[in-house]
Amino acid sequence: MIMVIILAVLAMIVVKALTHSPWGTYTVAFTIPLAVFMGIYIRYLRPGRIGEVSVIGLVMLVFAIVSGGWVAESPTWAPWFDYTGVQLTWILVGYGFIASVLPVWLLLAPRDYLSTFLKIGTIVGLAIGILIMRPTLTMPALTKFIDGTGPVWSGSMFPFLFITIACGAVSGFHALIASGTTPKMLANEGQACFIGYGGMLMESFVAIMALVAACVIDPGVYFAMNSPLAVLAPAGTTDVVASAAQVVSSWGFTITPDTLRQIASEVGEQSIISRAGGAPTLAVGMAYILHGSLGGLMDVAFWYHFAILFEALFILTAVDAGTRAGALYAAGSARRDKPGAEENQLAAGEPAGDGAVRTGVGLLPASGGGGSARRD
C-alpha cells in the first residue's frame, strides 16, 4: 500500500504541473518518442555510439522546450495538449502500463540516461546560479501552519512522513525501484558504489537546491500556488486571482492580484493559482534564478518549462521503475504451486499486477489530487 501511495503522490506532482499547460505537456510528451529513437539508435543504428546519441538527445530536448512555446501559442495545436488534471491522470495510467511492459532498453534506459545528465547539469547550474545571485530567502523559518493545519499540508503524519523519507533518504523504496535498472548501468561490480550511492547523494543535493529555490519565492506567491483551489476561491467565485490574493493576504502574506497575473504571464502559463505538488513552485524559483544568473539569457518562460521538463523526466522514471517493481510484488502475492510445474509460477502475471498497481496509482490522484485548476 505504501508503494502505491508513494507512486500516486509522484504522479500527482506531474499532473499538477501539466494541468492546462500545453507547453509543458507537449515538452514532456516529446521525450517519449525521443527516448524510443535513442534506444533504437544505440541498439541497432549505431551500437556503442554513446556520445553521438547523447548530443542528439540534448539538442532535441532544447528543441522540445523551444517548440513547446510555439505549440502553446498556436490555436490549432494548443488544444491537443491542453488537459484537465483528471484527464492527465488517466493518460499517465495508460502510458505507464505501456511503458512498464516495453523492453527496458527501448524507453526506460535511454530516458533514464538522458534525464541523469539533465538532472545533474541543471542542479549544478542552479547551485552556481544561487552562488552568483545570492537570493534572499523570503519564506519565514516558521509559520502559524507548523501544527499541520495549514492549507498546503494538513492532516496526520501518515502518509506524508513516509513519503518524505522515501523521497529524500537512502530508503527501502529506492532499493526496490532501482534494483531493476541500476544493474544495467554497471560494467562491473566495482561501479555499484559510485552509481548507487552517488545517485543518492545527488538526490540529497537536489533536495537542498529545491528547498532554496522554493524559499526565494515570495510567501504570498508560494501559498497561492500550493493551497487548494477550494480554499482560495470557493465555488461561485468569478475572479479566482483576486479571491486568492485576498485569502492569502488574510493569512499575513500580502500579495496582489496583479503580481499573481504578472508571474503567470512571465512563466508562460494561464494561471499559477493552486498549482500544488511542488513541481511548479520549484520551477518558478529555478526560472528566476537561472534567468537572473545568466544575464537574462532566454526568457523566464523558457527556464520555467525547462525546469518542468527536468522535474517530470526524473519523476516519471521513478514512477515507471516503481510500477515495474510493484507489479512484481502484486503478482508475487498471488504465488501458488501449480501441479506438474517444475517450479512455482506466478498465478497472476506481471501485466495483471501492473494493471492493479496502475489502477491504484491512478485512482488516488484522480479522486483527490488530480483536480484541475480553474483558468483566469
TrEMBL record:
Residues 334-376 are annotated as: Disordered. Signal peptide: none annotated. It holds the Pfam family CstA. Residues 367-376 have a biased composition (Gly residues). It is found in: Cell membrane. The chain crosses the membrane at residues 27-46, 53-72, 88-109, 116-137, 157-177, 301-319. InterPro entries: CstA (IPR051605), CstA_N (IPR003706). Keywords: Cell membrane, Membrane, Transmembrane, Transmembrane helix. One of its GO terms (biological process) is cellular response to starvation. Belongs to the peptide transporter carbon starvation (CstA) (TC 2.A.114) family. PANTHER family: INNER MEMBRANE PEPTIDE TRANSPORTER, PEPTIDE TRANSPORTER CSTA. This is Carbon starvation protein A. It comes from Raoultella terrigena. The lineage of its organism: Bacteria, Pseudomonadati, Pseudomonadota, Gammaproteobacteria, Enterobacterales. The gene is cstA_2.
